[in-house]
Structure formats: structure tokens, C-alpha cells
Amino acid sequence: MDDFTRSVEAALFASDTPLGAEEIAAYVGEGDVAMALAALAERYAGHGVELVERGGRWHFQTSPDLAHILRRTREEPRRLSRAATETLAIIAYHEPVSRAEIEAIRGVQISKGTLDVLMEAGWVRTAGRRETPGRPLLYATTPDFLTHFGLSSRRDLPGIDDLRAAGLLDPLDEAIYQLQLENEVEED
């Protein structure tokens, strides 16, 4: 392994957060960061720790087949309320989205605390303001959201067919979805 690749490895190992290629380059200087990352990912494949990329950011993580060894030392995260889970899903699938849009999709008002919990977890961030009267804040997911849920990008979120196959759709939600599809067809 050449010195540049070793430098990239050291920067990733020492970092407490995932790093993008530009951030790595800022630490290690000039060189082919992409080639070094590919070489490291190949080198660590199948080891106890692996180099993975999530949302354009790289980090070392425990190999998934060995994660059970560390479970007892890991603090269990607080479970999200149903409102927070629904809000996070709406933001992930519709971002950037305003509070009013979230409330329209959910059909109920959300408390400010719900968004605060998601922002404290580092999964949601403000993404500017909509250019409409009142200039409402927009919300979007963060790279930490992708990392936490093991997604490379938002395109990896499950689609309606995946959710249906997993049995995660409520029969009432399924009926409403079918009615919406029928209404869209009639409007066309």
C-alpha cells in the first residue's frame, strides 16, 4: 500500500464522522482519493471492519455479520414516536418540504417538538425557505440519516411495492392509496 492510500486510511480512521472525498483531500493533500478509497474498500472487504460509503461520505464500520458482538456495549437509541416516524418518512420521500406540507400529508398538526427531536438526532435539517408568501422553512434529511439507516442515497428508500411486499402498509392506507390512483387516472 502506498503512502497516499495509508494517509487516506489514517484520516478516515481518526475521524469521528464520515468524510466526503473533498474533506479527505483537505487532510491528505493532492492525490487520487477515489482510487485510494476503492483500494481500501477492497482491502477491508470481508474483515471485521469494512470501509463503506453512505451518501457520498466514507467511514469504517463493523462488518454487519459481527455487529451482534457489539450490541451489548451499544446504548439503545430512544424509539421515535409515531408522529416523529411519520414526519421523518414524509421529509425523506418529499424533501424539501415545509411544515404545512407535512401537516397536509399527515392530516394533523405536528408539534414543534417533533421536528426538534428529528433535528437533535441529526437526521433532519432546515433546507432554506420556499419562495412563497410567508417564506416557510423547508426541511430535508441529512447525510447522518442516510448513514444511520444504511442508505447510499434517497433513491435506496423502499418504494410502495417494497412496503406492500413487506406487509408494512395498513389495509386502510392501502385502500386510500388505491382510491388516489383511481382518481389520478380519472383526472387524466
Automatic annotation (TrEMBL):
It comes from the Bacteria. This is SMC-Scp complex subunit ScpB. InterPro entries: ScpB_csome_segregation, WH-like_DNA-bd_sf, WH_DNA-bd_sf. It holds the Pfam family SMC_ScpB. It comes from Sphingomonas xanthus. Keywords: Cell cycle, Cell division, Chromosome partition, Cytoplasm. GO terms for biological process: cell division; chromosome separation. PANTHER family: SEGREGATION AND CONDENSATION PROTEIN B. Signal peptide: none annotated. Coiled coil: none annotated. The gene is scpB.
